[in-house]
Write a structure and sequence with these properties.
Elements (H helix, E strand, L loop, with lengths): L1 E2 L7 H8 L5 E9 L4 E10 L2 H13 L2 E3 L2 E5 L5 H15 L6
Antiparallel strand pairs: 1-5, 2-3, 4-5
Length: 99
């Protein structure tokens, strides 16, 4: 998952910025269907897991910047895992009941 991308970026620019870590399988840019514009987030998958790991490790130490924007780089999870994380976050934010 990559976020905080410039709204005017092209798919080729994303691929070029992240190809330094290895061959890319795909880039999927997310668009707002109602407003018909790019949301500033995308999903990118490398052909090899080790390349994704390199990208994630590097972004923790030295941020990846595109057009003067610091790009958020996170490991994407499937829908069920995401739902579990959201529920866990809500549970952890719920105040304790003291009797």
């Amino acid at each position: 998952f990559i976020g905080n991308l410039p709204f005017d970026i092209e798919k080729d620019n994303i691929e070029a910025a992240f190809a330094i870590f290895g061959p890319i399988k795909y880039v999927r840019m997310v668009f707002d269907k109602e407003k018909d514009r790019f949301k500033g987030i995308a999903f990118l998958q490398y052909k090899e897991k080790c390349d994704a790991d390199s990208c994630l490790s590097r972004s923790e130490v030295q941020p990846i910047c595109i057009k003067s924007r610091t790009i958020a780089v996170k490991r994407a999870v499937d829908g069920q895992s995401y739902l579990s994380l959201v529920i866990l976050q809500k549970i952890l934010k719920t105040p304790a009941i003291c009797i």
